[in-house]
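Colleagues,

Please find the record for the two-part complex below.
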Amino acid sequence: MSGLYGKLLEGLAALAAVLLGVTALAITLDVIARNVGLAMVPWILEVSEYVLPIATFLVAPWLLYRNEHVRLDVLLPGRPWLNHVSNAAGLAVSAILVVYGVRTILNSAQQGAIVFKSVVFPEWWLYTPVPLCFGLLAIEFVRRFAHR
Amino acid sequence: MTWWVAACLLFGSLIVLFAAAVPAAFAFLGINIVGAWIWLGKDAGLIQLVRNAVASISSFSLTPIPFFVLMGEVLFHTGVAMKAIDAIDRLIWRVPGRLSVVAVVAGTVFSAISGSTIATTALLGSLLLPQMLARGYHPNMAMGPIMAIGGVDMLIPPSALTVLLGSLAGISISELLIAGIVPGALLSAMFVGWIVLRAVMNPALAPTFEHESLPPWQRWKPLLVYVVPLVMIFVIVVAAMAAGWATPTEAAAIGAVATVLVAGIYRALTWSNLMRALMGTAGISGIILFIIVGATTFAQILTFSGATNGLVDAIQQAKLAPWVVLGAMLVILLVLGFFVDQVSMMLICLPFFMPLVAAYGFDPIWFGVLFLFCMQLGLLTPPFGMLLFTMKSVAPKEIQMHQVWHAVTPYVIMGVLGLLLVLLFPPLATWLPGVLFR
């Protein structure tokens, strides 16, 4: 189970990695096309803006799984209870953001908000990675409690 | 609630969360949740928090960050960086403290193609440190330069954290990136001067050894093959931004793709090391950007609670001399650098500092470079200096943490000297962007 779970988180991180690589390539091709007078693809730069939050939310649970999020750990040695405090705070934050992530999506969908730039799509799409990311983060914080 | 009660509440809780080892990103989000509930309208405030979380990192100005990181990761994972360092190693002969000087020069060159300070330190540390210790170098001579030059990476473009500073502070990213070149080179020169001086005064610190003798072509060829193309990438990235041919994002994307191509031409690229480089990129950028998720809301809460205006007004009404205000800001940054990471430093300080910079008429580019200096010193100062831990993790087991601190001390002092020089002679920071952009 934990192997599968680790693979899932790593898979999401790999998806983020590939998205970033493809975006670099797409922007470079766009610049070349513009400079040799070929047709420009106006939505590439706009889409690259959305890649950043998607990649960040996809990779965050994997980073927590690997304990790579930056934290001040000088007080930790000899105080194992501090880890519980830290995990509890992380779990509370993640749980609240799952609830409010879903509410933001529903709220935006109800209003029928649309993103109107070169690419047109319902605004709530932008917020879907939020509850997914914080849901996985919440699971990871619970898992940390269980492992202590 | 008066502004100072709000400010004490917000920063007090932040300190508690940081001290409890809550990851920085979650500490900011936790404060944001409470702050949004109190000052941004309860339920609506929390929905705003989610919207801001996405908006904070959906910014075109932040897109160079992963690309700059990718440049360094590709060179690191494909082994091209090692070949470049070896090329520099072949050229620097008959210099006192030779390997330490090689570390500084190679670090400066690698900084110019890598956007990640940690990658630079890890690379030089794992590559040159064992060699130096085996040759009888004193640990101070061996570790100090490697950590110090890792910090300088932040000043020399491309630099992921410079992009972030420009984006969050509303300073021109292209100009800020280029403004770091002269101070970065100045620091590198100071480091080389110090190493040579120490090695001349006390040769036992860095014993000289016979270098295998090579015909001139054998010495110069690796430079042409492995270093010149990488320096060309740096020149193209900087020139494209300076000439206005490309935005920082486009220049960074081109730099990243060019680095992959160069690694391919050397036949050093495989699917597996490209994927490792991309995963490393996603990881390092993710660590930085996930903290930024809370940036917009944190700044809004500081504004709506009255903390920003209250503090800025109080400082202005105190009629302090501009240099006192500037000095105080830099001291705050240096002190914060002891305890918090660079991204958190920006989140905490910029909402207060940028209005003051505007009110007192400080040149934002100059201030940006001073800010970068303080952040790079924060990488080198215990207990939370990231590069100290990076060095400890790649150093042999017998090296103790206090030896790492001891090794870096002279370089921290030189960093402070460099900061004072830029403070006293602003053109060190503003001259180059002035020539290229105005």
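Chain B touches chain A through 60 residues (CB under 8 Å).

Comments are welcome before we finalize the supplementary table.
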